[in-house]
Amino acid sequence: MKIATIGLGYIGLPTAVMFAKHGQEVIGFDTNKDVIASLQSGRIHIEEPGLQDAFQDVLARGLLRPVSQLERAQTFIIAVPTPHTEDHSCDTSYIRQALEAVIPFLETGNTIILESTVAPKTTTCVIQPMLEGAGFTVGEDVYLVHCPERVLPGQIMMELVHNNRIIGGVTPACAIAGKAVYQAFVKGEMLLTDASTAELSKLMENTFRDTNIALANELAKLSTELGINSLKVIEMANKHPRVNIHTPGPGVGGHCLAVDPYFITTAVPEQTPLIQTAREVNSSMPKFIADSVDAITNSMAKKVVILGASYKGNVDDIRESPALKIAEHLQQRNIEVHVYDPHVACYNVNPEKAFASADMAIIATEHDDFKQVDTSLLTSMAHMRIFDTKNIFEGDHEQLMYITLGTLYRYTNHSQLQS
């Protein structure tokens, strides 16, 4: 089977590599010429454990070819970005551009798979009409499927194989065709359904997580106001056999949790007050962290170093990163901000310069690198304070002021955080 993957980002590239690794002939197409040039030279452009070695192997064996010109294939997998528009609705422009590039190469019997996360009804109301307008009957001439990705950055290579897959066909025949494609490597259960159910299932998976994190973040806020350790509250509450409160943090990021719920709320705003409120709570956390810095330092902080730029630990993805939003809020208060992240090239700055004379270090990303901080960096600070919004620091607390979202109440004037 020859497969064309359109979009070679955090999902498209690992997917292309996995199909090639399992003996399929794969071409990887992307409109970014720098990405194609890097891949053709043997270098991947994203950070994902195991991906570089797997890519080099299939590239050397000729099973995967990065190309800047699309060509014919039996299966076309679209894995392009779906950002949100100004009103937070799903921007389908990249999907439509990808399909316009695919249509001239389609032949009877081809399968088109959309992996990009989209608003409900996108497959049937956006993609299907474009195919039919080009003269194809979906379910007879070509097969159209929505198969959302469900992988965790940092574990993508394992989860692509072992996670179950939702395969949503526009018709039952489309779903069967989609299953035949993924049988090449998927060992998890393949769940056949219709395309719209697949779309909303993916969105609700991330909305569930976003909503539960919002509950934990609201708990952190109210506990600070009440003078109670929220992390201890969660520890005790989770001893109940049917309770699993999530962990609070500086907000949520990435393309999933910070974006996907909006694809639902903009589609049916009157029916989604809970989801909208959860989004507001999580979106408010970077400002809450910045307000907490003011409260801890009596608004005297002149310099802050933020540890982490990516939205998640041990990856380089900065999309919708709460860390960068915290930086913006602090800079608006005329605070000098240095963001240090060894996983992100543009933020892999000199840590000595970042820490020197800082009034506070904020751990905003749970990189393993930040579980310990070199003593010389801490002693170079104007005030040895660590505000650990991820509760990961394992270093010596005795010589510094160590603050978490559980103990924040001890170091603040609660009235300053009421807003």
Keywords for this structure?
419 residues; Rossmann fold; eight-stranded mixed sheet; five-stranded parallel sheet; 38% helix; globular
The spatial strand order of the largest sheet comes to: 3-2-1-4-5-6-7-8
- Looking at the overall shape, the CATH architecture of the largest domain is 3-Layer(aba) Sandwich
Q: Give the helices and strands as they follow along the chain.
A: EHEHHEEHEHEHEHEHHHHEHEHEHEE
By CATH, the topology of the largest domain is Rossmann fold
Description:
It contains 14 helices and 13 strands. The protein is globular, with a radius of gyration of 23 Å. An eight-stranded mixed beta sheet has the order 3-2-1-4-5-6-7-8, with helices on both faces. The termini are far apart. It has two domains: 2-195, Rossmann fold, CATH 3.40.50.720; 228-417, Rossmann fold. The chain has helices at 12-21, 33-40, 51-60, 93-102, 122-133, 156-162, 172-182, 195-226, 230-237, 260-265, 273-297, 322-331, 351-355, 375-379; strands at residues 2-6, 25-29, 64-67, 75-78, 111-114, 143-146, 165-169, 190-194, 303-307, 336-340, 360-363, 385-388, 401-404. Helices cover 38% and strands 14% of the residues. By secondary structure, it is an alpha/beta fold.
